[in-house]
Structure formats: C-alpha cells, structure tokens
Amino acid sequence: MKTLLIPTDFNLASLNCIPGLVQRYAPEKVEVILVHMMKVTDNIGELLMLSRRSSEYRHISEDFYKACSQLKQQYADSINNIRIEFFYGSTVAVFKNFLEANEVDAIVMLENYDYRMLNKNSSEPALLANRSGYELVYTNCNEPASAKAIANQEDLIEEIA
C-alpha cells in the first residue's frame, strides 16, 4: 500500500487528482492524507489556544467531507482510507517527522493549482515539500487521467450538487 500526502485548502478541486492517482498506483491500494499546512505562531496568546485546534476544521465544508466519502466508496477496491490532517510547523525536520509518523511514501504536488490560505498561519505547501527529500509526484488536478475518471468525477459533482 502507498501512502500519499496531498496538500489541500479543502477546495473540491483539490480532490480531482485522486482518480488519476488511484489509476497510477493500481493495482496497489493507496491511503490518502489530505493535509493543510500551518505555521506555528510565536504569539503567546495563540500558543495557549493550540489545544483548541479544532477551530481549523470549520474551514472544511460538508461538501468536501461528502466528496471524500464518495471517493472512498467509488474506489473502495483501490483506496484504503482518506483522512484529513493539519500539519503545524515551519521546519523541514518537523515536517519530516510528520511524514515518517504517517508513513508517507510520496507527496503529491498539484500543478496549476493556487492554494488558498485559510488564515494568517497557513503556509505554502511547496516550501517544505520541496526540501523534505521525499518523492514528489506532480499531477494536474484540472486534468483527470482518463475518460473513465472524467465520467466518475462528473457523477461525483452531480451527486454533490
């Protein structure tokens, strides 16, 4: 099984790469970790509030959760799990620890995709990914890998809408 880390801003478009990745790694199963990267603040008041990290989850829409669930169902033979995480840190060493702890095999970088910053502590994922030393898999989230993937995504969009 391959574990793939996909940086996300929780926009539905960031999920478009999953059908192509499933096809790319078939017949091997994949585990997908959707992660948003956050810098750790140096503000003492904000540091004291870190225990309330769940506030970041308010940025994830119900449609995003539904789309993840539908992808898991649609590709049940190929996707072991899709989970959502937040990474808190700003150094390569901390990021590598996060990757090791989650047994990540590769980091998926979405080409032609503009990440939205959820708040002032959000960080650009390429900064740490490029320096991590991990395998980077580049994919275009706007171009699914096959006609079958396109048809599946159209069905997914209709179900969500």
Keywords, separated by commas or semicolons:
5 strands, five-stranded parallel beta sheet, globular, 6 helices, Rossmann fold, alpha/beta, 161 residues
What does this structure look like?
The protein has 161 residues and is an alpha/beta fold. It has helices at residues 18-25, 44-48, 62-74, 92-101, 125-129, 147-160; strands at 2-7, 30-38, 79-88, 106-111, 135-140. The protein has a single domain (2-160), classed as Rossmann fold. It has six helices and five strands. Strands 3-2-1-4-5 form a five-stranded parallel β-sheet, sandwiched between helices. α5 (125-129) links the parallel β4 (106-111) and β5 (135-140). α3 (62-74) packs across α6 (147-160). The longest helix is centred in the last third of the chain and has 14 residues, at 147-160. The protein is globular and about 50 Å long.
Blueprint of the fold:
Layout: E1 2-7, H1 18-25, E2 30-38, H2 44-48, H3 62-74, E3 79-88, H4 92-101, E4 106-111, H5 125-129, E5 135-140, H6 147-160
Parallel strand pairs: 1-2, 1-4, 2-3, 4-5
Strand order of the largest sheet: 3-2-1-4-5
Look at the structure and give the CATH class: Alpha Beta
* Overall pLDDT level: 84
Beta-strand portion reads 15-25%
The structural domain count equals 1
By DSSP, the count of extended strands is: 5
Helix content: 25-40%
Q: Under the CATH scheme, which architecture would be assigned?
A: 3-Layer(aba) Sandwich
Low-pLDDT runs: 144-154
Order of helices and strands: EHEHHEHEHEH
Shape: globular
Distance between the termini: 32 Å
Largest sheet: 5 strands, parallel
Number of helices: 6
Q: What structural class results from the helix and strand content?
A: alpha/beta
